[in-house]
């Protein structure tokens, strides 16, 4: 029987804390708390047994269990759909020197897959619109959002916060401005910190 199989039941939760990890100079894996087997070091410098890291990745994706830095490509469970955009000539509040990028998302209705909460049940599609300023930073965010959409990270499937219904396509923790005005409390502009915030949200999912 392998070393890994004999200690599975003693392994702590996949997300190890710095206190649990301790000083890695003692050559112990912070997941199984035993001596390294086939040690792998991530770009963030944290080290793990190869098989321990493989199991952690299967559970939570390619995210360091200690510092949460993404070390691979995260693919979400967003259903099939389409993302498009167009340029509007009028400006957003707070961005009087440029036009507006209007983003359109269309997610098709269908059947939930094994990745979703209720496989085989109906999936209710949606159409969503969002806005960005048509300047250098706005176009950078557009590029990042397109990358996130292609990796199926913009939407997920779950319970609607507004209706309470299951099997709904919902936003997946990457905030969008769905209104052109009204300020942050109305998911609109002006909101001078929005572009920097959404870039941080995207970075947390490995999109940069």
Automatic annotation (TrEMBL):
Residues 1-25 are annotated as: Disordered. GO terms for molecular function: ubiquitin protein ligase activity; zinc ion binding. Pathway: Protein modification; protein ubiquitination. Residues 29-68 form the RING-type domain. GO terms for cellular component: cytoplasm. It comes from the Eukaryota. InterPro entries: Deltex_C (IPR039396), Deltex_C_sf (IPR039399), Deltex_fam (IPR039398), Znf_C3HC4_RING-type (IPR018957), Znf_RING (IPR001841), Znf_RING/FYVE/PHD (IPR013083), Znf_RING_CS (IPR017907). The keyword Cell membrane does not apply. It catalyses: S-ubiquitinyl-[E2 ubiquitin-conjugating enzyme]-L-cysteine + [acceptor protein]-L-lysine = [E2 ubiquitin-conjugating enzyme]-L-cysteine + N(6)-ubiquitinyl-[acceptor protein]-L-lysine. Its EC number is 2.3.2.27. GO terms for biological process: Notch signaling pathway; protein ubiquitination. It is found in: Cytoplasm. Keywords: Cytoplasm, Metal-binding, Transferase, Zinc, Zinc-finger. Belongs to the Deltex family. This is E3 ubiquitin-protein ligase. It comes from Neolamprologus brichardi (Fairy cichlid).
